[in-house]
Amino acid sequence: MKNPTQLERYKKLLSFIDAHFKEDINIKKVEEVCHYSYRNINRIFEALHHETIGKYIKRLRLEKAAQYLKYSEMEVSDIAHEVGFEDRTSFSKAFKNKYKNSPSAFRKNSESDWEDMQESLLKKDGVKREKLSFEIEYLPDFKTLFIEYRGPYDDRKSIDETWEKLMSYATNKDLISDTSILMTEIVDDEEISDHIRSRYYFSLVLEQPLTFKPEGLFRTKSHQRQKYVKFTFKGSDKENADFYRQIYTFWMQDVGLEMVDLPTLEFYPNYEEGIPEKEVITEIYIPVK
């Protein structure tokens, strides 16, 4: 989009919705946030996001509900209220239309999947399972410059291109140094969200406040001090995916802490261009209470 004003208003609205989608976001609120008529900003939003504002909000609510059903013990009625539905009936109908299962059946199937995965991992190669190794760590307040990637996490080509966009932009803005920290913010669960719409924020931790407004689709985000369970993994993306399955399968037995409704973070302390994939270290931070 060539019009920078329209793009800025789209980014402002997108950031607002991502932070407040569980709340009542009506036409008046949208217009207050972006200073455009709802009709005009909805047209811009759909052109850039390939979804109308209303469909985007509804999808986020249902995907968040599916995460609660999968990872928490909240009652279905409480989940419906938490994600912005007026009552359980309307929530259940919308959920079934999207996931082809009632909320209760979805939860039951998720529990069955966990049990099957646990049994499979316990029997793997006949080797006794080692308990998950982790640390408890608090990350302080920090701010990031990021660009959003939407799509499957195994699309290596598209992911590399997105990283390159971030690095090129940050380099041109003199934001890269020997102490620069790169991270990925995993916003969605690929097993729950639409595969082509799963969001990942490829980010640079800012060492100093920006002196300019990010152009294009680049945005900034503030992260508040938070407690995390930290896992360290070394290996390829495929092996990393298997490691995540182990984490969630044996979370209750080995960790036992309650997760917080915030994105998982990944840091890459030894990443550099040309490093063999099997040598890449990934630090996984899962937020907890």
Describe the protein in words:
The protein has 289 residues and is of the alpha+beta class. It has two domains: 4-106, Arc Repressor Mutant, subunit A; 135-287, Regulatory factor, effector binding domain (Multidrug-efflux Transporter 1 Regulator Bmrr, Chain A). It has ten helices and eight strands. Helix 1 (4-20) crosses helix 3 (38-49) and helix 7 packs across helix 9 (237-249). The chain is globular and about 60 Å long.
**Which architecture of the largest domain would the CATH scheme give at its second level?**
Alpha-Beta Barrel
- Are there runs of 5+ residues with pLDDT below 50, and where? none
Can you count the helices?
A: 10
What is the name of the CATH class of the largest domain? Alpha Beta
Distance separating the two termini: 41 Å
The CATH topology label of the largest domain is Multidrug-efflux Transporter 1 Regulator Bmrr, Chain A
Describe what is shown at a glance.
The protein folds into 2 domains: 4-106, Homeodomain-like (Arc Repressor Mutant, subunit A), CATH 1.10.10; 135-287, Regulatory factor, effector binding domain (Multidrug-efflux Transporter 1 Regulator Bmrr, Chain A), CATH 3.20.80. It is built from 10 helices and 8 strands. It has helices at residues 4-20, 27-34, 38-49, 53-71, 76-82, 88-99, 103-123, 156-172, 237-249, 251-254; strands at residues 135-139, 142-150, 181-186, 199-205, 219-223, 226-234, 264-267, 281-287.
